[in-house]
Amino acid sequence: MSTCHFALFDLQPAFVIDLEGLAARYRELARETHPDRFADAPAREQRQALERAAQLNDAYQTLKSPSRRALYLLSLGGRVLPLEATVQDPAFLLQQMELREELEELQDSADLAGVAAFKRRLKSAQAGLEQGFAACWDNGAEREQAERLARRMQFLDKLALEVRELEERLDD
Amino acid sequence: MFRGTPDTAKIMALLQIAEPGQSPQPHQRRLAVGIDLGTTNSLVAAVRSGRTAPLPDAQGRVILPSAVRYLADAIEVGHAAVAAAAGDPLNSIISVKRLMGRGLADVKQLGQQLPYRFAAGDSQMPFIETVQGPKSPVEVSADILRTLRERAEATLGGELVGAVITVPAYFDDAQRQATKDAARLAGLNVLRLLNEPTAAAVAYGLDKGAEGVIAIYDLGGGTFDISILRLSRGVFEVMATGGDSALGGDDFDHAIAGWIIEQAGISADLDPGAQRQLLQTACAAKEALTDAERVTVRHGDWSGELSRAQFDALIEPLLARSLKACRRAVRDAGIELDEVEAVVMVGGSTRVPRVRTAVGELFGRTPLTDIDPDEVVAIGAAIQADTLAGNKQGEELLLLDVIPLSLGLETMGGLMEKVIARNTTIPVARGQEFTTYKDGQTAMMIHVLQGERELVSDCRSLARFELRGIPPMVAGAAKIRVTFQVDADGLLGVTARELGSGVEASIQVKPSYGLSDEEIARMLQDSFAHAGDDKHARALREQQVEAERLLEAVQAALAVDGERLLDADERMVIDHEMQVLRERAAGSDTAAIEQQVRRLSQVTDAFAARRMDASVKAALAGRQLNEIEE
């Protein structure tokens, strides 16, 4: 199929990557592949340029986000991580429910400072997961734990989105 | 960021063949200009001896009001047309930019605010009836552009190689195409259409070497736009755009006018002439307060004093709205306010000192105001034009733009399923899989939508097409992949493909007229205002769909096996529960529907098991299912 996202940016598949370097390489490649440069080319080349540019954008968005990067790494082995699988992680799920309840309370009390503090905690939880994933990714034996952490990352992503929606509502 | 169309390429080639003398000699400067084609005012600017500046008319004025008056045997553009607008409203066209790329239906909605008589043309385009006959918005814009071209050629002393024309970041394809058409009519070769916020960033030289996130705060007469850009060595990455299309300096005038009415104790019910005069007084007071701490305001016999602090208080609610849009755009960009490293001020209304301090406080840094906010866009366009015309070495700017509104599909129950979220960098291609809803379904309607709301009826319909020839299968077995592709010009193409059989259908979404700024802003605002409602509505619709699906499945099974596998009592129970579900699904109690869906599933469990057994037995006996069914 298409080139591996990492190879596209001259990177080795890894969880810890140089994000600055990734962004710089993205801009370089965007300049090369942008359809603007193929304005006078035959239709076929224009279409190819469009496809390349779209693939580049997709690859960049995937690698830029830690949780999407983790999922992508796990999928590289050929096994696709089922998104909707039952999460065998009761302690984490319980914690998620508590966090969501907390968020609802923050909404009811319109507590902006509380939301900011919540965001900071969420960010540090995300950073913790990323470190954990990085540590067990290199160790093939810990594949199961890596999958668990990747799922947790997705949960926190969703929670972060909800925090943003809450901020939006409180701003109105 | 816009590709030269094949047409432009052709015109360039023709120019070179027809006029070989025009080809530039070495070191001879190729004349190119930047044009800010604004709603209220337009400007043309050029780089001359290394300095970029707007070009003045014979009277030394750089601003050309975007107004055109049609007389029986002449055309007036600019100040004269504005002066005549009150006396000859039907033939004096102002704010034509708001009509560009719009359909007659859209324009009729604006009709209240516009005094013109519209007529339908052959196309969807609205025509304005004037003494010179019907005029399209493209023609009116072309008359403004022609005036600017003539001014530039007279000032620069030669024919232009081309022009860079700026458009709002929100302009859709139809509006951009209309702008290009107007330029062609005016005899201008469009080197590039450039987004206004990008032009402002270029004017400040922010594309040179600087790296980081910048905000462009553009407060014009009637609209407000905020763009968050990341730039790095000449590459502009639009991270988010937003704004409020019903917010501008005119609202400041109205706020002062309201204050005068209150202070002077006059009736707010004024005739149009008095209204006009009051607003002019208010506007003059606003402008005076840019430098003065207080100003004496006179209206009729009344006179009073307005301090800057009072004025600041009057506009505070308006400012708050613009700041809210800024915070939203920053959130959309996925960054924090303090990560914005420079703030560029654009638009005449940013001269108001309180606007500057408020924006400075929000971002925690002093906004850039060195370049005249009315001229900054034209100056940026001129710099870009000079580069594109080949006068300057160096890398071209590259703009990585985003889509301003989410794109998606209608799914069961009138819900919008987003395929590409707003503020996604283009070009982009994304696919999603869908399945059939009914047994034996051979066609599927693909309904393409744009907007942020959950219900289809609240989104804008962009296109509909049908995927036919799906092999008949049981509901849910077909796999239909719908792919959205948005190109660098923001044009959307949609393809639907049944993965098993390979049947395919596609459509190029080409709106004859696109979404207006107002619509985009309204749709965004609505989506936030109704986020809660939408969730409930969505949950209800999902349960209703679930109910319909179950009822349909049970009905189909009953028709085939009801007689054979159920006794009368069993049949009665099922019929009864189905009836209850039908009634509940027609209501709006989500929980009650959900409960009844479970109930009906329970009472049909045994029936489903028996059907399964029967088909297994049939298969074992080597017979086809359809043989049993007969």
What characteristics describe this protein?
heterodimer, A: 172 residues, mainly alpha, globular, B: 630 residues, 6-stranded mixed β-sheet, 5-stranded mixed β-sheet, 27 strands, 25% strand
Question: Explain this structure to me?
Answer:
The complex is a heterodimer of chains A (172) and B (630). With 172 residues, chain A is mainly α. Chain A is 74% helix and 0% strand. Chain A contains seven helices and no strands. Chain A has helices spanning 5-8, 19-33, 43-64, 66-76, 90-109, 112-137, 143-171. The radius of gyration of chain A is 20 Å and the shape is globular. Chain B has 630 residues and is an alpha+beta fold. In chain B, helix 4 (137-156) packs across helix 5 (173-185) and helix 7 packs across helix 8. The radius of gyration of chain B is 30 Å and the shape is elongated. The interface between A and B is medium-sized, with 27 and 30 residues.
Written as H for each helix and E for each strand, in order along the chain, the element string of chain A is HHHHHHH
Helix content of chain B: 40-55%
The span between the termini of chain A is 46 Å
Show the largest interface. A-B, 27 and 30 residues
* DSSP strand tally of chain A: 0
The low-pLDDT segments of chain A are: none
